[in-house]
Amino acid sequence: MKKSISIFFIVVNLCLGALFVYAGVRKFIPNPARKAATEQSAEPPAHVMQMKAFIGGLKAPEYFWPMLGIVEIVAGLLLLSQFFALAGAFLLLPVTLNIFLFHLYLKPDDTAGLFMSGLYLLGNLLIILSDYKKLKTVFFTPKTLIQ
């Protein structure tokens, strides 16, 4: 049983790591420009406008989108290394939480995206909680640092 649990966490580390390395690399590949619609189309729904505003706000300062890509690549590589997986999971926690909340609030009709982003967040939290013994010694020391 213990061996199957450790194999499960290795698979979670590898899947999450590969996913975020790929997502981080994609941030540096420019998207081809879309052709403008020749017809006057109806106004998109409010949640689509909110999504465009949110992503546009992330891309507006020219430093944030590449920095997010670098964070995703570094965290993914740390997860893939298995040795530094806890550090990678901590680095990735705000990113996976933001992805989940993005799908929860800005894409209410996309249940598959919400489910997948929930799995990313759950996997990330499981990686962090699996090393609870290591974390307990860091955060809950019996002695105070200032004496």
Determine the strand fraction and express it as a percent band: under 5%
**Poorly predicted parts:** none
Biggest pleated-sheet summary: none
Rg over CA atoms, rounded to whole Å, is 19 Å
Helix fraction bin: over 70%
Q: What is the general shape?
A: elongated
Please, how many domains? Answer: 1
Instruction: Compute the average pLDDT.
Output: 86
Q: How many β-strand stretches? A: 0
**Span between termini:** 44 Å
How many DSSP H or I helices? 6
Look at the helices and sheets and give the structural class: mainly alpha
Q: What is the H/E order?
A: HHHHHH
Keywords: Membrane, Transmembrane, Transmembrane helix
Pfam families: DoxX
Transmembrane segments: 7-25, 63-80, 87-106, 112-129
InterPro entries: DoxX
Protein described:
The chain crosses the membrane at residues 7-25, 63-80, 87-106, 112-129. It is a multi-pass membrane protein. Pfam families: DoxX. With 147 residues, the chain is mainly alpha-helical. It has one domain. Helices cover 73% and strands 0% of the residues. It is built from 6 helices and no strands. The protein has helices at 2-26, 46-59, 64-81, 85-106, 111-130, 132-139. α4 (85-106) runs antiparallel to α5 (111-130). It is elongated, with a radius of gyration of 19 Å. The N and C termini lie far apart (44 Å).
